Structures
1.
Amino acid sequence: MDKSLTARLQRFTAARFSPGEAFGLHLTLGVLALLLAMAGFARIAGAVVDGSPITEVDLRLAAWLHTHAHASDGLRTFLLGVTHLHSTPGVMALTAVAAYWLYRRGARDWMLTLLVTVPGGMLLNVAMKHTFERARPHFDEPILTLTTYSFPSGHSVAATLLYGLLACYFTRHARSWGARAAIITAACAMIALVAGSRLYLGAHYLSDVLAGMAEGCAWLAICVTGTATFRRRRAWREGRNQLHDT
């Protein structure tokens, strides 16, 4: 291989793993996260379409949870509150509050990212539901009666986008690895709580919520990485213009 070509490839590779580059480490990690999330979603979707063993797990788990949900009034009431809070109106209200808070803190780039990420991801989920057209779990005495499609779970997508983006913001400003770990754990716990509420109340199958989380991670990777790249590129151009002016 030509030495000059080898040198260019080495510089290109080094730049992709450099934290300070406009198209550096953040972009590499974002693309990796996107590819992993897309692969996970494709694997789950393929299994559902083909009727793989996960669909049998879906049915058994849904039946077991439905039986327990009718036997536990307190937990059922709590999870109904969780699921209603993260319905479309609830998530839009939470997003508006979070966006206002980010605006007051001067984090306008993050505010705009939030306003694109959450509603955009929810619209994407509607398109995905109409692509797969999977019926929801059916019970003789349902806790929730819904007429929309089941796959992927919209609540899981919305929770992944909202709490995932807030986790990205807070981890960026955290001062220690311990604080970052706590933030990520809290975000994952909230996402799991919302997804679990949909399972427990019989609104979704396990594969629905897993696919919803994978879909949310993919869209989140696109939005956060794209915004970060744009912000770094803008800072690089401003720095270059200032250097040129001097």
2.
Amino acid sequence: MSTPEDFPALKKDIKHRMDQAAEVLRKEFAGLRTGRAHASLLDPVTVEAYGQPMPLNQVATIGVPEPRMLTATVWDKGMVKAVEKAIRDSGLGLNPAVDGTTLRIPIPALNEERRQELTKVAGKYTEEARVAIRNVRRHGMDSLKKMEKDGHISEDEHHRHADEVQKLTDQSIKHLDEMLAHKEQEIMQV
């Protein structure tokens, strides 16, 4: 009566979806400016190039020569002014200096108030990821109930599998908490 291949597929799907929630959080954390240079800091910048908006990384090479400096080497000399304007107008609080086809972009130090703000934002992102993981868990538990109701698994198997789903959930939440602790430490570092 029991079909052993049902739960491994469900478990794999649950793990995959929980890992995706952690990956989304990692990407959101990458966008939080910590006072240290990181090439992904310029990911949201779009440049008006050849009559259409383009991501900055499609018109220039982004480099990180120093911990508090980014460089953008523009491929087309005629695009330098547009790239400079796009970075200034991006809302990131960056002020590039033009040096030929290279823009030097110093990363200003964060003040204490801004650091506190960023830790709150990081906490909010983490809570959203936790909610996503709990939703995956709930979906998995509902699927197990349905499998038991339909007679595909016994009550004992249901409880055993539910424990495995809970273990996956706990591991994923712990991983998110570790990511948050690391990000908060990075933000508060002067």
3.
Amino acid sequence: MFPSVPSLRISPGVGPGRRVNPVMEIVKHYEDHPIMKKLKVRRDPFRALIQAIISQRTRDDVTDRVAERFLRKFKTPKDVAEVNLKDLVETLRDAGLYRQKAKMIKECCERILADGLDLEEIVQKPTEEARRELMRLPGVGPKTADVVLLFAGGHDVCPVDTHVARVSRRLGLTDSKEYFEVQEAVHEMVPEGERGKAHLALIQFGREICRPRKPQCELCFVRRFCPYGGEQA
């Protein structure tokens, strides 16, 4: 459990009389990091959805390997809907919670076919509308929907995973655990068009510096702006 920190509102701009924006400092730090390459390749919405589901509670390297194996075998929702659930389970076996994910993916694909949904068409809709439609799919929550919108539709959103939520709370952007309140707090700090970068930068920062356990506060380049880091001094 992270300690509560006071809410901290900082202007996205930086200039005379303005406090430094720690989120944008983090974005700037990771702007040339290899993780940013993920924004340069627009994914097929079906592939993005499958990868987002597989990624839940699973390391990136495992997610990439399992998703590639899965998508070589099952290229469309129809391929998934027609196969036995046991085959999906076996294909996903290396991922965390693979049995639950197999069931979720199969139910998603069955719903896509039953309702005649076109994922490519959905991700081209306005963000709020597209998110609502994706979240009607079985097991698809706001984070999974936003990952699809960002990487398959190019929407200007910052999906909130455990890293983004943890860093946001420690920086004092919010003390909420509610998805959209955390997302709004991040969005307020980030200029339009930069929210995908913020998502990836906060993830990398959370992995390298602002770790769940034993955070590297002594190495943190935004520590002087961070209530949590100040408590660790």
4.
Amino acid sequence: MSVTDPDPFWIAFRLVIVALSLAMVVFGARVAASRRFPAAWIRVARLPASQRSQPVRIGGGQALIGASLLIQQAPFLVPMPFPVGFALLVVALLLAGASLGWYLLRRD
């Protein structure tokens, strides 16, 4: 599957995933760097008090998951050889594992 595929649904679906994963990376990095959640997100998500005290843990995990999703979509949107695509898949899986480790081991 690539951008040259005749089915526009899958192309649009993958582009939406890329846009959402970019937003996850930016938002998660912002939360982790500023060490606070935006007030609007606290109201919309209705975070309990126990989670409001962990912005670095939640933001860092969210940024790593977004990066994993972004890297995972690259071989489908940009033509590349199989070994490079496989290496990107391995990197995406490592980032997903790192996000799980970040969330479990990080104590704020």
